Amino acid sequence: MCGALARALARLGAEVRLLMPAYRGVAARVPGLRPVGELQLPAAPPARLLRGRMPGSRAGLYLLDIPELYDRPGGPYAGPDGTDWPDNAWRFAALGRAAVTLALGRADPRWRPDLVHAHDWQAGLAPALLALERGRPATVFTVHNLAYQGVFPWETFRDLALPWELWSMERLEYYGRFAFIKGGLACADWLNTVSPTYAREIQTPEHGFGLDGLLRHRAARLVGILNGIDEEEWNPGRDPRIAARYSRRTLARRAVNKAALQARFGLPAHAEAPLLAHIGRLVEQKGVDLILGALDGLLAHGAQLVILGSGAAHLEQAVRAAAERYPGRVAAHIGYDEALAHLIEAGCDVFLMPSRFEPCGLNQMYSLRYGAVPVVRRTGGLADTVVDASEEAVAAGTATGFVFDPPTSEALLEACRRAIACYREHPAVWRQLMRTGMAQDFSWRASARRYLALYRRALQAQEA
Q: pLDDT tens digits for 409-448?
């Protein structure tokens, strides 16, 4: 998201520079990297700051090069076994402190920003530390998923040598521990989340994860802005990963992709069978257990089901067991395959996304762009991007999918029954749903304009 937003902002004329750790392999992908200088950051090994440009963009890029902290196998936050790195507090404290040094013009003397935009708990210390500085830039903090908060013991706060001014309920202290995310939530000039509905949801006990009181306190400075999608990467008219390219005007070609998807998974090539699909992390948040709970009912309606994803071991096993129990009707690929994800979006009739909570979500937007009609739970970004096929919305030409409310298999099944009935009995309405979905604008350009407006508000507030 950060890379896509930076590119879109640069195309709109903003001077953007992205700061990120030099994770293993990243520097090799950035041509023309040059050292800016050495950084001496508290509680961190010696660091180098490297400067270059994001590939395919005018946006600048800084890499924080600390091999002891970032040059590791695995992912950015966890090792190859999926366990969080035990020194994550030190890793991301260094990132926050580097951002402050850069923001105050002390790292690259040739550049100083007007505004710092920090994302999620890993960058949460930057707004907190900047709040202690005079003559600082404006700050914006984005919450991508409030469930991840970067909470550590008080001893870690002490060992990181953080300023004592930050140890209070109004700053970083969190029930006797400290939370990186509070640095952003409590100290940034403006806050946002990645959808308008999620911005409201996180102010409730159900979705606030213990921080709803703080968010209600800051509600006047909290907005929701939908993420965009890469419309070049996800374009059915140009996609090299699918069996047949198509557009809103050539929807008949989609049938080739459905047949290819059925063949890929060993499903009977029944063109009339509603083909349902789910792509995502196999965790309770995403609701794959709700899909499995509705499975018998879905198959009783003659549906086929394809699942692509990985996650919790017990859910991976449950998905495998369902595929083994219903060969030729249910198929799964445990893991992730980018090309297969594109073919699924291009070939399925219905895309299932029954998330218990979903800050923004991308797959429902991919599905709409590819003419796959989504069935989603009314939460977060799903509520903001999918219009239920009520009689009124169908008549108005605004409907794009099917929406349900309770996070239960029964509610999901009922929404799927509505979708399957429409697919079989009202083909003209179904085509209208597909075409309306494909016409939606989920580009990063639209999102970037909203972020620029937020930045202006933050700058005006600081000037006042």
A: 999 999 999 999 999 999 999 999 999 999 999 999 999 9
CB contact at 8 A, 49 and 40: no
Asked if residue 67 lies in contact with residue 27, where contact means CB atoms within 8 angstroms, the answer is no
Cβ(225)–Cβ(454) under 8 Å? yes
Q: What is the spatial distance between Cα 333 and Cα 242, in angstroms, rounded to a whole number?
A: 17
CB 306 within 8 A of CB 296: no
CA distances from 335 to 254, 309, 338, 352 (A): 25, 5, 10, 18
Q: At residue 430, what are phi and psi to the nearest 5 degrees?
A: -60, -45
Q: Which of 64, 81, 79 is nearest to 27 (CA)?
A: 64
Residues of the chain with CATH 3.40.50.2000: 2-228+445-463, 248-442
**CATH (residue range 248-442):** 3.40.50.2000
Single pTM value for the model: 0.92
Could you confirm whether domain 2-228+445-463 is CATH 3.40.50.2000? yes
Long-range contacts of 250-256 (CB under 8 A, 24+ apart): 251/371, 251/431, 251/434, 251/435, 254/346, 254/347, 254/371
